[in-house]
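Protocol step 4 of 5: obtain the predicted structure for the target chain.
Materials: sequence only (see below). No template structures provided, no constraints applied. The aim of this step is simply to have a reference model before the mutagenesis design in step 5. Sequence pasted as it appears in the construct record:
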Amino acid sequence: MVIKPKGHWLELRLDELWQYRDLIMLFVRRDFVAAYKQTILGPLWHLIQPLFTALTFTFIFGNVAGLSTDGLPKFLFYMAGTVAWGYFAKCVTSTSETFV
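Step 4 output (structure tokens):
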């Protein structure tokens, strides 16, 4: 028995995604519940962590070290960097966990 793909591996079949939408939602819900089952703050932690990190960076790098942000508001400058870095780090970490 030989299993062959229906098309090129880069093709995105939206009809198949729609067909399995219940399964996808089940996986999303399962991962969401598993991630926040035993936390006090739950999903609110996704908002609190970058805010505190940006506030810390604003205080240390903006006020103590006196680094320039070229006219941008210091908090927004560090918040944008924190969010971008957090997204990148989560993508790399999640990708590496798929191979374990």
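Step 4 remarks: The chain has a mean pLDDT of 84. Residues 62 and 68 are 7 Å apart (CA to CA).
Proceed to step 5.
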